[in-house]
Design goal:
Layout: E1 3-7, H1 11-23, E2 27-31, H2 34-43, E3 48-52, H3 60-69, E4 76-80, H4 85-93, E5 98-101, H5 106-121
Parallel strand pairs: 1-2, 1-3, 3-4, 4-5
Helix pairs in contact: 2-3
Length: about 120
């Protein structure tokens, strides 16, 4: 079973994404802040990370840098507020695969993750 880490400080978004991806057959892990996210990343091999750019304790860029330091290679989908173009560009240079602007289309998010994980498993 593929593992997805969902990192967002908004509980409603975490719960929504959790429900969607569990129904898709994924094992999901939820983190409300950067420290929780890093704990999961250091202890569990994830297949995908859904990562909010602005969260307490450690922002998305810092989490991306930590993932790179650990040498982990998985699709990372950033979730950003409208207009955070500089953050998106910085995230892409750090290995972010895709990004969605909030509010995002949940069906588009689901399809993107499914497609990335199918493509990624063939690497």
């Amino acid at each position: 079973m593929k593992k997805i880490l969902i990192v967002d400080d908004q509980q409603g978004i975490r719960l929504l994404l959790n429900e969607i991806f569990k129904k898709e057959g994924y094992e999901t892990y939820l983190a409300a802040n950067g420290l929780e996210a890093i704990h999961f990343i250091e202890n569990i091999v994830m297949d995908c990370v859904l990562l909010d750019m602005k969260i307490p304790g450690m922002n998305g860029i810092e989490i991306l840098q930590r993932i790179q330091e650990l040498g982990q290679n998985m699709p990372i989908i950033m979730m950003t507020a409208y207009g955070e173009v500089k953050l998106v560009e910085q995230a892409k240079t750090l290995g972010a695969t895709h990004y969605f602007t909030k509010p995002f289309d949940i069906f588009e998010m689901k399809n993107t993750v499914n497609n990335l994980l199918v493509d990624h498993s063939e690497l």
